[in-house]
Design goal:
Elements: E1 27-29, E2 36-38, E3 42-47, E4 53-56, E5 64-69, H1 72-81, H2 83-88, H3 94-101
Antiparallel strand pairs: 1-2, 3-4, 3-5
Length: 102
């Protein structure tokens, strides 16, 4: 049996762990409309250590997160269906919904 060189080993994803991947975009799903979109076009809502929902402007805050379109229709659907409550496993306050709809 021939020995495998690093070039012959199976790789993870496109081009392996060492490859640079320009143009690669993270795909996330909106909790309201269930449509997939690029991470940059969605708002990340995160449950912080105190159990409150907050908007994560950086996209890297620690805590349980959920994504939502920046569209008023998706915000309304998420509020009516309590989609953020389920995704974050916490209750979302009325003040947060007011902040999100601005």
């Amino acid at each position: 049996m021939p020995t495998l060189r690093r070039d012959d080993l199976p790789t993870r994803g496109e081009g392996g762990p060492d490859a640079e991947r320009p143009g690669r975009v993270g795909i996330r799903t909106c909790v309201a409309c269930r449509q997939e979109a690029g991470k940059k076009t969605l708002v990340r809502v995160v449950r912080d250590a105190e159990g409150r929902a907050t908007i994560d402007a950086t996209g890297r805050a620690p805590g349980r997160g959920a994504y939502l379109h920046r569209d008023a229709a998706c915000v309304e659907i998420a509020r009516k269906k309590r989609a953020l409550d389920r995704a974050l496993k916490a209750s979302v306050s009325a003040e947060f919904w007011a902040e999100l709809s601005l």
